[in-house]
Amino acid sequence: MSNTPRTGLAVTGLSLGTALNPLNSSMIAVALVVLRADFGLDVASVTWVITVFYLTSAAGQPVMGRLADRFGPRRLYLFGMALVAVTCALAPFSPNFLLVCVARAFMALGTATAYPSAVVMVGSIARLAKVESTRPLGRIQMSNTSAAAVGPVIGGVLVSLLGWQALFLINVPLSLAALFLVWKFAPPDTEREHGKVSELLRDSDIPGILAFVGSLMLVMMSLLNVLPDFRWWLLAGGTLLAVLFVWRELRFAPPFLDLRLLGRNRPLLLVYVGFALFNGLYYFAFFGLPQLLEEAGGYDPGIVGLLMLPLAAMSVVSTPFAVRAIERFRVRRVLIAGVVLLTLASGAMWLLTGSLAVPLVLVLTALLGVPYGMVSISSSQGMFVSTRPQERGVAAGIYQTSRYLGAITATVLIGLLYGGGVTQANWGSMVLVMLGLGAVAFLVALLWREPTD
User: Fold this and answer.
1) Residue spans of alpha helices (H) in 330-423
2) Of the candidates 284, 303, 448, 283, the residue with the CA atom closest to the CA atom of residue 381
3) Would you say the C-alpha torsion 254, 257, 259, 264 has a positive or negative sign?
4) Helix, strand or coil for residue 152?
5) Which 3 state secondary structure label does DSSP give 262?
6) DSSP-based three-state secondary structure for 41
7) Residue 434: per-residue pLDDT
8) Looking at residue 2, what is its pLDDT?
9) Are 59 and 210 in contact (CB under 8 A)?
10) Which residues are CB-contacts of 303 (< 8 A; sequence separation ≥ 6)?
11) What is the pLDDT of residues 155-185, one digit of tens each?
C-alpha cells in the first residue's frame, strides 16, 4: 500500500464515490420538467425529489460518520456504494413518483457514507504513502467541486437523450467502479468494535441518533418551507427534539455526539461555523446569480450554465495550488487569505448591478472560483487536524451538514431578497449580505488556531 500506483488508485476510488453526492444533487435540477410531465405533478410536488435528497444527506452524513468510526470506514464505504448501485439499478422501473423519491432517499443515504469514510481512510492512506494528508484531501475536494459543476451539463445530456431514468442508471457503473477500487486498493480497516448485536445496539445511542436526525430534518423542512401550512409547527417540533437531544447526549455514555468534547474543541467548532458561513456566501452566487442572468439579463438557461462554469473550473484549478500553499504556509494562513479573497470577489459582484455583459460575468465568476478552492481545502484540512483520528468520521459528517445548512440558509435568504422581483437592484442587496457573511467568516478564520497536540 505504500507504493504510488496503489495509493493513487485508492484515492481515485474515494474521490469517485464522494463525487456521487454533489453530482446527484445538481444533475436532478434539469429533470424536473420531465418528471412533472411523466407523473402529472405540479411544481410544488416535483421539488420533493430534490428536498428528500438534501434532507437525507444532511441528516445521514453524521450518522454514517459515527458508524465509520465504530465499525470501520472501508466496509461502510463498500456498503454505501453497493446500496447506491442496487438502488439506481431498480429506480428507473418505479411506477410512481413516491418510489422515485424513496429511491432518491436511499441513494442519498448510500452516497452519504462516502465523504465521512473517505476522511477516516485518508489518515491511513497518507501515513502509508508517506505524504501530507492535504494531498488526498485535495483530490477528493476537487472531485466534489467538479462533480457539482458538471452535474447540470451531464444531466441535461442524459435527460435529453434517454430520459430521467438515465440519472439513476449512470450511478450504477460509477458506484461499482468506486466500490471495486476501494475494495482492491484501500487499506483494510483497523480493529473496530465487535460484540453481540444486542450490546452494539445498546451502546449505539439509538434514541440520541433519532432525536438528532428528527430535529435536523424538521428544522430544515421548516427553513425550506416544504409544508407552508405547518412551517412553524415543524420549527417548534425540531426545536423540542433538539433540546431532548442535548439532554440525552449529556446523560448517556457513550453518546452519539459527545457535546462536552465538542464544546471543548474550539478549533473544530470554529471550522463548522466558518464552513457554514462560507457556503452561505458561495451559494448566494451559485443559486442567486443564475436567476439574475436568466430573468434580468434575458439569457438562455444553456448560456447561463456556461457562464457559471468558470466558477467551478477555477476552483478546481486553484485547489492543487492551495494544497501546496498549506504544506508551505500551514492551514490558517491559507484559510485567512482565501476568506479575504472571497470577500473581495463578492464585493466585485456589485458591478453586476450596472451591467450583465458576458465578459464581465465570466471574469467575476472566475474570480469567485479561485478563493472557493482555497477555502474549501483549507477548511477540510482544518477539520481533519482539529479532530482525533477515532472521531474523524462523525466530524466529517457534521462538516458536510454544515455545508447543507449554509446552502439552505442562502436559499431562504435569496427567496426573501428576490421576493420583490429578480432585479439588479435586489442583487445589490444580496451582495451586501454576502459581504456581511464574508466579514464574519474572516473573524472566525482569525480566531481559528491549529491544535498543537
Assistant:
1) 331-348, 358-385, 392-417
2) 448
3) positive
4) helix
5) helix
6) coil
7) 92
8) 45
9) no
10) 293
11) 778 887 888 899 999 999 999 999 999 999 8
